[in-house]
Amino acid sequence: MKKDNRINESSKDKQLEQFRVDSSGEKLTTNQGVRVSEDEHSLKAGERGPTIMEDFHFREKMTHFDHERIPERVVHARGFGAHGYFQVYESMAHLTKAKFLQDPNVKTPVFVRFSTVAGSRGSAETVRDARGFATKFYTEEGIYDLVANNIPVFFIQDAMKFPDLVHSFKPEPHNEMPQASNAHDTFWDFVANNTESAHMIMWTMSDRAIPRSFRMMEGFGVHTFRLVNDQGVSHFVKFHWKPVLGVHSLVWDEAQKIAGKDPDFNRRDLYEAIEMGNYPEFELGIQVLKEEDEFSFDFDILDPTKIWPEEIIPVHKIGKMTLNRNVDNVFAETEQAAFHPGHVVPGIDFSNDPLLQGRLFSYTDTQLIRLGGPNFHQIPINRSVAPVHNNQRDGYNQMAIHKGQVSYHKNSLAGNTPSPAAKEEGGYEHYQEKVEGRKVRSRSDSFKDHYSQAKLFWNSMSEPEKQHIINAFRFELGKCKSSDVRQQVVNMFSNVDRYLAEQIGEGLGLQVQTDHMGADVTLSSPALSQENTVKTAFSRKVAILADNGFSGKELNHLLMAFREKGVQGKIISTTHGMIKSDNGEDVEVSDAFLTTSPYEFDAVFIAAGEESVNKLKINKDALDFIDETYKHYKALGAVGEGVELLLAVGILATESGPGIVASREKDDIGNVADSFIQAVAGHRHWSRKV
């Protein structure tokens, strides 16, 4: 068994290795392998004559260029991926026969693609939006795709409405604006007239829609699936990815500014973390229900606009995924990765969630047009590590060279092979659910409650989180041109909470025009608030402001404390190059004020040293750097003369404060460093007055 485990762990890497090409030091060739003697001039009839049609190298090169781009995804176009592995903590055989969930010694290769939903490939990554979190497991039984989002519910209950939803939030067709934003009339008109979206809107107006990092956001399978064991016993299940670093977000002002300063912010963060060895980790959690409990709750467990509150149905963590390798080529791997919720292995099956049922059809259709035909599964990133044997032939981009005369089933010429596998041989069998009823176009009455869980979400938020939701509504609706649409939305959300609707209306100059007092829900779910997440300083980025004449002793102590806790400290100064400490030590600057910004960092520390501080005091960029950090509720630290820089910005620096750690005594650097690292772990300090 151990030998098989070793093969399983590296099998995908070995498979991909044959497709990797390193052309360094090689001679230039055509795609047919013919060496090329000239690659700067096309073949002409004389030096000043026309290009000759027989120039096969020019035609091949230009034709390839003309066809290098494939259609981008309609949704989730802006994505970034990474490789890794998954290990289950203990056997899940009592719930499922899926082999990759049996043996804790097996490392199953995975590929993950994180993405925004609404924008095009060229849009910014910090826009207010849901995020995709799609994981491809290369199991020994075949491909399993867990196609998740960072929000556990969705806008609609039935896939029939998905085209309408997407058309509403895409740029409006008459002027192709706005890009990667829901802050416009057609989206909010859809919301007001499709009230099942209320719960999802509460999530997208919350901080969950502007994650600090792909490494710091949850993933949810959204739908209800089934786990089926060897005895044929089925349980309903919901899947969760829980980030080891906790769930953290940007603030809205910061997210907007990052979009202009660094539209690649989230992918850069992921890429650099992996390159540095700070491998992102996510624990796989499951919520499990017995079949007989399907109707035991005041919500329908098949409704994709509803969560299963964790306080009612706990999340059990069953394994961990580690992302430890960046892609070699974004197009070949990330862009050509084809995910599909219908890619399952024995032991994982579907429920009758009407949104999931529609997705099982649409994803294959999408891959056919994006990736050029029915053989997209042969693209290296999509290839199963399990052998593929069937009677499918030909088609665009067929890479396999099939041997033999038979391409059909049943047959006698090839001994009826490849032949179906029995259940005992690992053949996939669908769960035999009993189904009966008339053919109807309708949904269960249990799907009609659109507001109770939206109120549950509101009740679960901290006061700062509630204010952020109000501000987000005001911003989004403030961009709508139609006063009627704005009024409809204000009235709609009075069904969730009267105070919320009144606050939204106040920001828009509108009154609530209904008698609704909000959903009659008093319960809350603490698991929904980011105030209750894991908080750690590990892998956080701190800007250390310094110039010539900084105090080297204190800085070295600070950097040592950072290294012990896995905090990344970067020296930011007036210019690139080297700066000199008060004891003559040269230190390399990581970035200059001109080429970075406070939005790229989780906190700021000001180095001691009278000469250094005096130079920074008259540098507007340095003062703005500190001021923006303060306004975004991040930790600020200073020691010795560095405290003067806080005062110069107008920040009252004391021994302690809301996320401010400062001491005029240089010898106190040890205590300051420890307290500052704790403040960094706190992420945001909402009690601060800004």
TrEMBL record:
CDD domains: catalase_clade_2, GATase1_catalase. The keyword Metal-binding applies. Keywords: Heme, Hydrogen peroxide, Iron, Metal-binding, Oxidoreductase, Peroxidase. Residues 1-25 have a biased composition (Basic and acidic residues). Its cofactor is heme. InterPro entries: Catalase, Catalase_AS, Catalase_clade2, Catalase_clade2_helical, Catalase_core, Catalase_haem_BS, Catalase_immune_responsive, Catalase_large_C. GO terms for biological process: hydrogen peroxide catabolic process; response to oxidative stress. Pfam families: Catalase, Catalase-rel, Catalase_C. Heme binds at R73, R113, F162, R359, Y363, R370. GO terms for molecular function: catalase activity; heme binding; metal ion binding. This is Catalase.
